[in-house]
Each structure stands twice: as structure tokens, then as C-alpha cells.
Amino acid sequence: MLTASGWAVQEKRNANLAAARDVAVAELSFKTGEPDYTLFVDAKALGAVVPPRTEQTRIVAEVERRLSVVGELEAVVSANLQRANRIRQSILQKAFIGKLNS
Questions:
Q1: Which of 32, 29, 2 is nearest to 13 (CA)?
Q2: What pTM, to 2 d.p., does this model score?
Q3: What are the tens digits of pLDDT across the range 67-83?
Q4: 31 DSSP 8-state letter
Q5: Residue 96, CA distances (Å) to 11, 59, 67, 83, 99 in order
Q6: Which of 1-15, 36-50, 65-79 has the largest mean confidence?
Q7: Where are the alpha helices (DSSP H) in 7-52?
Q8: What is the DSSP letter of 2?
Q9: How many angstroms separate the CA atoms of 14 and 78, rounded?
């Protein structure tokens, strides 16, 4: 999202604030913690991008919910693929013994 907005996104170990006017550096360390990104404009720190704890909790809950749905869908797809394979094998077996139309 930052890149799409025109920010030059960099890792802290390779940070070069002169690389662009708008630079976002990932996970710089501060006394208060490590924000996701620290934003620099003309090599001056603007601020850090960290959602509030309640938003972080909400995001985690939503991701876990969606992953749960994905897991359920994977199980359904797997079961349906196995069922389709069994049906296919049954049809082929009947075709080979001449009982496909009965």
C-alpha cells in the first residue's frame, strides 16, 4: 500500500533516506517499540505507522476467521474431489464391463 502511494519502502538494514523524497523504513527500533514503518520526507521523520492495539486485535481476529473459512473450504473441495474420483472410477468400471446403460 505504501509503495502504491509513492513511498520508497526499505528495510532498516539497507535504509537510504536519500534514495527518494518519501521513504518508509520498516521496523526501526525506538524506546517505545518497533512500528511497522517509520515515514521520512526529505530525510526527516514524519511519524510511524502502527494501528492502535484494538485495531491490531480486530485485524488478527478477522485474519483468523478468514483462515478458518479457507480451511473449511479446503476440506470441502478435497472431499468433493475424492467423491468425483470415486464416481469417475465407478463409471469407467461399468463402461468396461458393459453395464454403463443399466
A1: 29
A2: 0.44
A3: 999 999 999 999 999 99
A4: T
A5: 63, 55, 43, 20, 8
A6: 65-79
A7: none
A8: T
A9: 44
For 28, the grid coordinates are 526501526
How far apart, in whole angstroms, are the C-alpha atoms of residue 86 and residue 65? 32
Q: Which residues partner with 65 through β-bridges?
A: none
Q: Residue 2 and residue 41: Cα distance in Å, rounded?
A: 13
Query: In sequence order, what E strands does 1-102 have?
Result: 8-11, 22-26, 37-41, 44-49
**39 is written with which cell numbers?**
515515514
CB 29 within 8 A of CB 48: no
The amino acid occupying position 58 is: R
β-pairing verdict for 8-11 and 44-49: unpaired
Please give the grid coordinates belonging to residue 37.
514503518
CA 72, 56, 1 angle in degrees (round to 5)? 90
